[in-house]
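Schema walk-through. Below, the input block comes first and the output block second. Nothing else is stored per chain. Lengths vary across the set, and this one has 292 residues.
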Amino acid sequence: MSYEGWILLTASLVGLSCGIMGTFLILRRMAMMADAISHTVLLGIVTAYLITRELSGMHMLVGAIIAGLLTAVLVQWLHSLGVQQDASIGVVFTTLFAVGVILIATKVGNVHLDVQHALMGEITFVPWNTITLPLLGEVPQATFILFIVLVVVLIMILAFYKEWKITTFDAALAASIGIPVLFMHYLFMTLVSITTVASFDAVGAIMVVAMLITPASAAYLWTDRLSIMLVLSALFGVLSAISGYYIALWIDTSISGSMAFATGILFLASFIGSPKHGLLSRYARPFTVAKE
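--- output ---
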């Protein structure tokens, strides 16, 4: 595959995984949790480096996943103590991210680990960091990891689709029929953390947040059915990734930033033109009723 093809494939895998997970984040009204986890994983990455003194390897992934789960646990704990959920997210997110920034500034030194890279990522470097796989040959490591994460996400969503659906729309009903709501919540947060971590190094925190929230928000404007929303959100994520790449080439700017920008353009188009909840359909409805 060409250099450009690997970049597009990697970004599309991010769009697919984040689009699917973002659907449940939006429906559970936990959109800002995506922002929190995508930033607090920085603490896990820095901590893993301080322990091992290596910038690559499975320990970085493990550290980031632990940080993501710690974020979810602390938010849930504060919320159980009576703190509003949005306030809980704000407190945990800013505190853990700040600790990560302080550790970078004071402990990491001259190592190539900085806040700018964490926020923006650098997807153009993805095709150069490869691993050799049987039958496939050399494959970018980030692309392979994202593919594995997508497979895991799809398996978990399909295997527990009924449970996800009930716990998302009516947690009380789910508890009354014996579904372990708290376990499903932490399983969901684990999937969000894994998806965020896998996307983090390649595309940075800004694009991860954009891909988790915006395609799902756009899909929500088009349908009221969960299955269709999942498919639309994933497709919107891929469309944003591909169109954002070519926008970046056109105006010669950050690829990840352009992909995040493309998600906003797609949401704006959906907000205006969606036949179900779009602005145009809202204005057309009274006119149609009056005409009848």
